[in-house]
Amino acid sequence: MTAAPLPLADAAPAALAVRTHCPYCAFQCGVRIGEGFGTDELSVSGDPHFPVNNGELCVKGWTSAALLGHPRRVTSPQLRAADGLWRAASWDEALDFVAERMRDIRDRHGADANGVFGSGALTNETAYLLGKFARVALGTANIDYNGRYCMSSAAAAQNRAFGLDRGLPFPVADVDGADVVLLAGANPADTLPPMTQWFDRQKRAGGRLIVADPRRTATARAADLFLQLTPGTDLALANGLLFLAIEDGLVDRRYVADRTTGFEAARAVALNYHPARVERLTGVAEADLRKTVRWLAAARGAMILTARGAEQHSKGVDTVHAWINLALALGKVGKPNGGYGCLTGQGNGQGGREHGQKADQLPGYRLIENDAHREAVAKVWGVSPVSLPRKGKSAFELLDALGPGGGVRGLLVVGSNVAVASPHLSRIEARLKALDLLVVCDSFLNETSDLGHVFLPVHQWAEQEGTMTNLEGRVIRRRVVAEPPRGVRGDLDVLRELAERLGHGDRFAFHTPREVFDEFRRATAGGPADYAGITYDRIDAEDGVFWPCPAEDHPGTPRLFADRFAHPDGRAKFFAAEHRPAGEEPDPEYPLFLTTGRYKEHYNSGAQTRLVEKLRRAKPVPRLQLHPRLAHQHAIRPDSRVAVESRRGRVEFAAEVTADVRPDTVFAPFHWGGREAANRLTGAALDPVSRMPEFKLAAVRIAGVRPAAEGDR
Ligand code: SF4
Fold first, then answer.
1. Angstrom distance (rounded) from CA 536 to CA 557
2. I need a surface site. Which of 22, 35, 330, 478 has the fewest CB within 10 A?
3. Which residues, in sequence order, are bridge partners of residue 260?
4. What is the pLDDT of residues 199-212, one digit of tens each?
5. Is the CB of 27 under 6 A from ligand 1?
6. Rounded CA gap, 613 and 213, in Å?
7. 596: exposed, middle or buried (Cβ count in 10 Å: 0-12, 13-18, 19+)
8. How many CA atoms lie within 13 A of 31 on its CB side?
């Protein structure tokens, strides 16, 4: 079914278009999708009326309709046959098989032997229902999602410092009024390209941009000041800036006294970070440190924004605390055009972490170990609070516990490609292969389903309505644009049918996302992320509604922390954080830093974007960035093959020789699986608080690969 077109202000060709949002990242650009002229294809254009992207899209957005009607779409459930190949099955056969195996695993090994792995790409409705399915229908504590790999360090630090985690506590449009923006480990020119319009406006208004990154990225090239720090030293950098703020008398003493607690402990730690030490640790010159802190302190509005480069470390939470400490000490948080924010990555990375698919959480950003929170949610679900499982394993720990040794024997994966996205990949592949039951629920086969026993084909982004929450905390609507292929079902149908077979159908009798949303609103009411006042009609009328929004006559909350923070005393908390080495540092055997990241043409594990011809042609293979001096040392020429080895694996890449990367560092994109998977090299050191794996730093060595001679072939 194609949705009725929504009224648009401008004339044809947009007049018949449906307004919705791009399927990929957390910017959730507004798009208009309509019939292509004279073709059967759908055309995509940027929605000029959506106030986040203002009509701009990146190449992934422009090409997103290629996923609809794609020839690789799977249109019937698949079961793994005895010969190892897939065979098509009816929905009843596949669902009966899954439910029977899940029941059997539960009966033989206990409820926690079934696990669920969700995704930051799912709508709020699906994420909510998946959390409920795990806790009520399966009764397992073991549910987590791939957002744990994404924003969990920033989320944990914001919760501890501010009492609330919303990626950006202000609309993205506030960037254009900031005098200074500091980006730490963020490369929006490649990861959120339409966001650069806000930095352009900020610069035109006289603002300054500072970028801290080990690579001279496209974003760094546009900066007024580029701090090319050693990988894994953001924490020392932020502490060093706080040292200088203290030394130069730039701390906003009134703000610190009136609005915060814990400054003295953070001050005592920061005083160990004198500029000479910080220069030695980070490689950033003292003059640049002094310039950075002077610019930030003098700004009326100053923003510090972090992303995965600073966060995906075994000290990611402490690193974010150090940046927040600096923003608080300078008195910038909660002020106009200023503060701290995290640039969330996945399309619904924000909503996905609020509504119960995280091991330690219940809907509304409630905590599963909090008795009052358990009671509130249990009441909405019509179950006893005692029946709700307690906190389960975090994403990597859940995957590492798969198989007889770890105790988790069955896994349902929804919308996530863990066999590309997980660190220490060979170890996780072995765990996945050891499962009694691996069920993958997705639109396309991927590297994870290659190891699975059952594949359940479900609707994709433009075939099912629902809500998403973008990086600003703005709740928006994903609308139906295309008819799903025959044979494919919605996530909600799959969960309802499985719940019925597991004896819990009465609590999952939802047939539309709107029905789920109505219960979901009640389940969030009174929680930190309160969506009770948000309706589909309001989202349509207001171009999204910012949570918290506790009542239908509440305007929503675009800006947080102007008057008070979310801790009971209304104050923000400093957390003293010492710099410490990464889980693995370069040594004589493995002398280089490996850091990983994204291409603008691909998204996360590449499961979707590698299917889009234009994107695949633009970036067909992963290439290893290395400095010309390093390339010369190893006799590696541009485009020749280079082998990268860590203690966990070996991967070959084509060489991209560039002075944009430090001579002690190599960079690889992580969008490919199999033998090209960068995550064969990364390790499993976890942050002690967020349980974020250390994706951004591994110790490696490299060697040129001799082309195969005729006789070798
Ligand atoms: Fe916008 Fe992100 Fe989609 Fe690009 S991938 S069009 S930045 S939502």
1. 17
2. 35
3. 572
4. 999 999 999 999 99
5. yes
6. 31
7. buried
8. 30
Is the minimum distance from the CB of 608 to ligand 1 under 6 angstroms? no
The string of pLDDT tens digits covering residues 301-329 is 999 999 999 999 999 999 999 999 999 99
- Name which of 80, 136, 127, 67 is nearest 377 in CA terms: 136
Q: Is there an atom of ligand 1 within 6 Å of 120 CB?
A: no
Angle at 64 between CA 173 and CA 41, to 5 degrees: 130
Q: Is 671 in the pocket of ligand 1 (CB under 6 A)?
A: no
Pocket lining: 471 vs ligand 1, CB cutoff 6 Å = no
Position 13 scores a pLDDT of 45
Q: Residue with structure tokens 């910017």?
A: 27
CB atoms under 10 Å from CB of 464, counted, come to: 23
22 lines ligand 1 (CB under 6 A): yes
pLDDT for 150 equals 87
Mean pLDDT of the chain: 94
Neighbours of 411 (CB within 10 A): 29
This prediction's pTM: 0.94
Q: Rounded to whole angstroms, how far apart are CA atoms 227 and 288?
A: 7
Check: CB of residue 621 under 8 Å from CB of residue 672: yes
The residue whose CB lies within 8 Å of the most ligand 1 atoms, and thus the one to mutate among 20, 22, 478, 604, is 22
* CA separation, residue 395 to residues 172, 432, 447, 664 (Å): 29, 13, 18, 31
pLDDT at 16: 61
Both tokens of 412, joined, read 């349902």
109: amino acid identity, one letter:
H
CA dihedral 409, 413, 416, 422 (to 10 degrees): 0
Tell me if 653 CB under 6 Å of ligand 1: no
| pLDDT of 36 | 63
343: nearest Cα among 579, 155, 528, 601: 155
The per-residue pLDDT for 11 is 34
Are β-strands 208-212 and 225-227 bridged in parallel, bridged antiparallel, or unpaired?
parallel
Phi, psi angle pair for 474, to nearest 5°: -90, 120
Q: How far is the CA of 291 from the centre of ligand 1 (A)?
A: 33
Residue 509: exposure state from Cβ atoms within 10 A (0-12, 13-18, ≥19): exposed
Number of helices followed by number of strands (H, E) in the chain: 24, 28
Tokens of 420: 């590309």
Residue of 47, 52, 58 with the most ligand 1 atoms within 8 Å of its CB, for mutation: 58
The low-confidence residues of the chain, meaning pLDDT below 70, are: 1-16, 36-41, 708-713
Are 624 and 666 contacting, i.e. CB atoms less than 8 angstroms apart?
yes
